[in-house]
Amino acid sequence: MDNPSENRGTLPGEKPGDFDVIIIGSGAAGLTAALELATDLRVLVLAKGSLTGGSTAWAQGGIAAVLDAGDTFENHVRDTMVAGAGLNDRETVEFVIERAPASIDRLCELGVPFNRDANSLHLTREGGHSHRRIVHVDDATGWAVQSALLKAAEANPNITMLGGRTAIDFITDRHRERYSAAGRVWGVYALNEETGRVERHVARATILAAGGAGRVYQFSTAPRGATGDGIAMAWRAGARVSNMEMMQFHPTCLYNLEVKNFLITEAVRGEGGHLINPRTGKRFMTFYDPERMELAPRDVVARAIDSEIKRFGLDYVHLDISHQPADFVRGHFPTIYEKLLGLGIDMTKGPIPVVPAQHYTCGGVVVDLFARTDLPGLWAAGECTESGLHGANRLASNSLLECFVFGEAAASDILTMWDELDDPPAILPWDESRVTDSDEEVVIKQNWTEIRRFMWNYVGIVRTTKRLERAKHRIELLSQEVDDYYGAFRVTTDLIELRNLLQSAELIVKSALARHESRGLHYTMDYPEMDAAAKDTVLVP
Ligand code: FAD
Ligand code: SIN
Asked: Which of 56, 354, 495, 500 to mutate to test the pocket of ligand 1 (most atoms within 8 A of CB)?
């Protein structure tokens, strides 16, 4: 390997050659890759808004790993593939699950304070898991993981982290001073949110770890920045995207007129919570999945709740764990307990009103087991990818795990092939010669709201071809408007996100229209049966 520190620059992100690898995203996937790479290379991590703004910080339930003597990798593989309705890639599933215990060991070394029982880690249970295998930090695992990763990254002199940078598009061969049509990626153009200027960040290797596209839906547990930027950027640069119709809806988001996206972890059902129809007072999962009841996979439970709400004209259903001892509930779910108490709900005494909400993007940029995308120079990891792990429906708590395993895979592939990667060429600056400042921000807000509303109504838990066609038509109308706007005005984070939100919506609808069966998360009344063979929906730019 070369000595990468020889040509170290002075200021972060200012000159090509200052950094060896650029990572877009400071969540579990991005920071795992950064820490692995920083043993040998200089890494720049860019994040939109704050460094803790991704989904990682919000994760509640935990991380799935086979750690109990009575459990086996084969059990975890089977549960993952049952939840994924057979669309998973078995090789990927085994690759990830077999690496889970080592990922947990590394997190322990970083100081993540997982809950413990005497000498071993406490394992909780979630829907779709045949065994207790979820390691967790109370009901706020994501915050503990995010904090530990950030602390380690901050302490590493080879890692520079810059928040307040919104990546716009990849820098490719087309942006070289000597134009080339080849599609190699050399970094990213990013908006400095403070100065309003667009910066060039150029390196030998780029890793995309920009999270999911949940905010394409009106109701979502995902944070504000989950606008599918990474998926849309990769698609525009020429990478294949797959299984975007597989949008996961979490069954239990708090129903509250003020607090719109607060998740009630699946572990509440794992620890004995019941779902009850508030009109009849009865547990309704008996009708939908009498064997697994509340612990059926998410797609099954979310559809059951959706069906009860529609059949009975309800606003919400009840999730009730008040039959468990109050100390047990408070001890297991301290964050949720406090949050609900502040809203006047005591979960130790009565039920919690819940509704399904978008939760996770199962599809994304196609990657292989080395986290390579179709584009030379670009690797990708985490929720923005489709690695083959989740198939048609992600098993609970397999997502953070995927971030750790693929973040490491990307880093180790880059380290292995470092000497074969060329130095970046001279790159053109961002061209602002034909744009002015926008005078109608209201257009952006209006379009955001419109997209999220029709995606919820037409491309939600239960779909029909007619509704998908309606969504497609609206996307076509809006695309023209957004393209015109993007071409005329100086970029802002809101505009960049709107463009990506619309692009993500288009990919989801295109994929949903292409699948003529119901499988996992994609349920359409026009094709209610599942085909004999499972096939990915792969979109080629
Ligand atoms: P994120 O953590 O989402 O990070 C994305 C990063 O990319 C952020 O730093 C963001 O700023 C940056 N970014 C995005 N766009 C741009 C751009 N244009 N320019 C620059 N930077 C950009 N999974 C589990 O396994 N277990 C759980 O218990 C669990 N609970 C969850 C609870 C909630 C409420 C939610 C929303 C999700 C939960 N998940 C859980 C899913 C899991 O948290 C996510 O899938 C995972 O954290 C994604 O990590 P990531 O690194 O891929 O992306
Ligand atoms: C939850 O805690 O219910 C979320 C777990 C997950 O999304 O994997």
From this structure: 56
